[in-house]
Design a protein that fits this description.
The protein is α+β, with helices and mostly antiparallel strands and 282 residues long. The protein contains 7 helices and 15 strands.
Length: 282
């Protein structure tokens, strides 16, 4: 078997490509190298792993407790296909959330405890489109224009899926996290619990900065998001069946890319819970 290799995905230094490894039978030194790379890059791409649901769940558990286990599955389908094999339409509540996730976000920021990390793997893909894109909010924070770091240093925003789905025009939404009664308030700048480095913590669920008028808050959050997600801080992955990716939700934003929703797309998702000490709201 070839040697473990961990290389930056591109010259932009967003994420790393990890090859020469079998995630089912990791040796201890390989696991240590992966964990170190996870903290260094925030996004790791493992092509051609073809893990079973159980093995994907077990890989996720190496990073921490799982947040989301649905009907006993630790690799939860994110799919536009029903059990009968039909493709749902755009008004289906599940499709509404999938479409909403074409907006930049970080997973579970609307939950009382936001997520630490997410794993995604590809199982059925449309003929074209349907990629996933990430943006590095640590790099974005470092690059903020003069004065803006100071402007936002004491600001926070509420995070809510109900808010973000309504703003995206998804009126039929429901499901996981939709009915959280008290949306958590989270600082706009998150200090990473392991590296200590600051990152912008924003995205489509963020709104209603206390102390600002609604329009002012929306304008500031939109400005930050559009600056932060500029191409030099982004990486889009064009999936092949069997690929598996993990990212750090405490640092990266991500979004789904469009595709023809008449075609099936089946991904499997494993969400790793945040730490109650560092991922709770204020
Ligand atoms: Fe997501």
């Amino acid at each position: 078997m070839s040697q473990l290799s961990i290389e930056p995905l591109s010259a932009k230094n967003v994420g790393a490509l990890v090859t020469g490894i079998d995630l089912v039978s990791l040796k201890n030194d390989e696991w240590q190298a992966i964990l170190e790379a996870f903290h260094e890059y925030g996004l790791l791409v493992f092509p051609g792993q073809h893990l079973s649901d159980e093995d994907q769940g077990a890989f996720g558990r190496r990073f921490g407790e799982l947040e989301m286990i649905v009907e006993g599955h630790s690799a939860v389908p994110l799919s536009n296909k029903t059990k009968d094999g039909d493709v749902v339409d755009k008004d289906d509540p599940i499709m509404q959330v999938l479409l909403g996730n074409e907006g930049w976000h970080t997973d579970s920021s609307y939950m009382p405890i936001s997520a630490k990390a997410s794993v995604l793997s590809a199982h059925v893909l449309p003929a074209s489109g349907g990629g996933t894109e990430w943006a590095d909010m640590r790099a974005a924070y470092e690059a903020l224009p003069e004065g803006l770091q100071e402007t936002i240093q004491d600001l926070a925003a509420f995070h809510s899926l109900k808010y973000s789905q309504a703003r995206a025009g998804m009126t039929q939404s429901k499901g996981y996290g939709y009915d959280v009664e008290e949306p958590p308030l989270r600082p706009l700048v998150k200090f990473h619990p392991v590296t200590g480095k600051p990152a912008l913590y924003i995205g489509r669920h963020a709104h209603g900065i206390p102390g600002l008028e609604n329009a002012e808050s929306e304008a500031l959050l939109d400005r930050l998001l559009s600056f932060a997600c500029s191409p030099e801080r982004c990486h889009e992955h064009h999936w092949q069946v069997g690929d598996l990716i993990i990212w750090d939700n405490r640092r990266m934003l991500h979004r789904a890319r469009p595709y023809d929703i008449q075609q099936a797309r089946v991904m499997k998702h494993t969400r790793i819970a945040g730490d109650v000490r560092t991922e709770s709201g204020m």
